[in-house]
Amino acid sequence: MLDLLKIFLRNRKAAFGVFIVVFYVVVALAAPLITDHDPTSV
């Protein structure tokens, strides 16, 4: 598993893509903390 991770992270484009995906996941999980908007009240 670590060998696969090392090979994967050597590819700069792949590592950047993983960074973007992880960034979006973190923002999605932190969204309730970032905003105070209630999505159910219209």
Annotate the secondary structure layout:
Blueprint: H1 2-10, H2 12-34
Summary of the model, kept short:
Helix content is about 75%, strand content about 0%. It has about 40 residues and is mainly alpha-helical.
Question: Which properties best describe this structure?
Answer:
42 residues, 2 helices, mainly alpha, 0% strand, rod-shaped
Molecular shape = rod-shaped
- Secondary structure tally, helices: 2
Give the proportion of residues in helices.
Answer: over 70%
Q: Would you list the SSEs in sequence order as H and E?
A: HH
Which secondary-structure class do the elements indicate? mainly alpha
Largest sheet: none
Question: How much strand?
Answer: under 5%
Number of beta strands: 0
State mean pLDDT (0 to 100 scale): 85
Radius of gyration: 16 Å
* Through-space gap between termini: 47 Å
Unreliable residue stretches:
none
